[in-house]
Structures are given as structure tokens and as C-alpha cells.
Amino acid sequence: MAYQITVRVFQTNSDAFFRCTEQSVFSSGTWTSTSDTYVLNMTGSGTSGSLRFDADTGERIIAVFGVHNYKRWCDIVTALTPADSGTKLLPEWYVEGTDRGKVKWSQLAEYSVTSTAPRARKYSIK
Prior knowledge:
By secondary structure, the protein is mostly beta strands. It has a single domain (3-125), classed as Mutm (Fpg) Protein, Chain: A, domain 2 (Sandwich). Helices cover 10% and strands 49% of the residues. It has two helices and nine strands. The chain has helices at residues 86-89, 99-106; strands at 3-8, 18-26, 29-34, 37-42, 47-55, 60-68, 71-77, 111-115, 121-125. A four-stranded antiparallel sheet has the order 2-5-6-7, with helices on one face. The protein has a three-stranded antiparallel sheet with strand order 1-4-3, with no helix packed on it. The radius of gyration is 14 Å and the shape is globular. This is Lectin.
């Protein structure tokens, strides 16, 4: 069964400008995009994709979207280093017993987190 997740990006705070700098996929799938809308097409359950955003302030985040056991899941990782790419990080959600592996099993359709570095900023997937 094929799956599709559509992601629309809204920036509500004007003190930083985030731009998508990487689209990656774990297993079999593809991203397509137009403007600030990104579509992840996956050939089946057990795969995921990530969008990395870099800000003009030096902040970096990755938003992760996937399907596991036929249910959608998502996560957000903040305070990334320049070397933390989606291609590097995505396999971590498939390591059982880790915090990221548990996120996949929790199958959250929505998620919010507030980063503390370099400044407090709220990120949400709804």
C-alpha cells in the first residue's frame, strides 16, 4: 500500500528565516515540492522522510515524517550541528530501544517541541 504525507510550512515568527536545505528518505520514497509545500510519497509502511531547515540565525532543525505499522508518525530534532543531515540521522529511528526508535512506535500524528539553544523557539507538526 502506498502512502502520501503532505507538509505545508508556516513561519510565524519574523526574527529568523528558515529555508529547507535538505529532503531525505529512508527506504523507498520520494519528495516533491512546490513553494512551501512538500509531499512525501512512500511505497509502503516502514519508511520515512525528513526535511532539514537552516535559519539565517544559525539554527538548524529536522522534521521527520513516516508510516510505521500502517500509521503515521512524526518527530522534530532541534539544535543540530552542521554535520547532522537527514541522511545521517534517519536510520536512528529504526534502532529499537533508543529514544528515536520509541518515537516511531508512539505513532504521534502531531508533535511540538521548544528548543532552548540558541534561543527558545517552538516548533510544531500538526
